Amino acid sequence: MKKLPNAIIFDFGGTILKEECFDAINGNRNLLKYCMNNTYNLNEYKITEEAQKIDSEIIPQLRNNNFEFSIIGFQNLLFHSLGLKFDLSPQDLEFKFWEHATKYKPIEDIEELLHEIDKRNITIGILSNNSFSSNVIRMELYKHNLSQYFKFILSSCEYGIGKPSKRLFDIAVKKTGYKNEDIWYVGDTYYDDIYGSSNAGIFPIWFNNNNEKIENEVKCYKIKSMTELISIIKNLT
Question: How does 202-223 read in b/e, with b if 16+ C-beta sit within 10 Å?
């Protein structure tokens, strides 16, 4: 790295925010408050049990072929098959479920890093493999006072495919308005983030805080903390 990029694209989970817990039972418990028709008098445990069955039957097949599903589509399949009707739009069901099923916290020093990038007028975006929409991701970032840094957020569920698809990275590049060689990508997952961005002609920075070892890895820069990237940006200024 000899100069600062014009844009930096980040992964979301594990790179910007870290998931502390996922409680589908609590998410479904909250949704039942808005249920208009519960044909079989199902509780949150039965609903979650059925969701796990669908997940094990369908999701691995999709992801093994690099297809991505949306939580809205998943909830439609789940709730319609169980005879459940809600007094909420599919988008509101998605928001309510996320709000009560997930808990995230910022990666250490990520706010300082984003501030250093932003004050140098470098465009910042997110490209995430996620079954939740970009609106939900932005809402979560807003909770942590981080949403203002991101010009765009791309969620794989809104495109039907996931990283490392080059098509997704190409879309992200177009969103920045810059050339591939003038962009960095920061992520924590080797195959999806590092191989994927390298294959798209973007310079990869691997947030490898678990010291993972990969044979025949692509050329990339490795960091174990966001403070390392802060130092790089300051030194290149």
Answer: bbbbbbbbeeeeeeebeebeeb
Q: Pull the structure tokens for residue 97.
A: 């479920």
Query: Whose structure tokens read 């599919």?
Result: 90
d(CA 152, CA 205): 19
Bond preceding residue 60 cis, omega within 30 of 0: no
Q: What are phi and psi of 143, to 5 degrees?
A: -60, -30
Per-residue pLDDT of the chain (237 residues; tens, 9 = 90+): 789 999 999 999 999 999 999 999 999 999 999 999 999 999 999 999 999 999 999 888 888 888 999 999 999 999 999 999 999 999 999 999 999 999 999 999 999 999 999 999 999 999 999 999 999 999 999 999 999 999 999 999 999 999 999 999 999 999 999 999 999 999 999 999 999 999 999 999 999 998 888 888 899 999 999 999 999 999 998
Pairing mode of beta strands 84-86, 35-38: antiparallel
The whole-model pTM stands at 0.95
Residue linked to tokens 């190409």: 170
Q: Are the beta carbons of 123 and 80 closer than 8 angstroms?
A: no
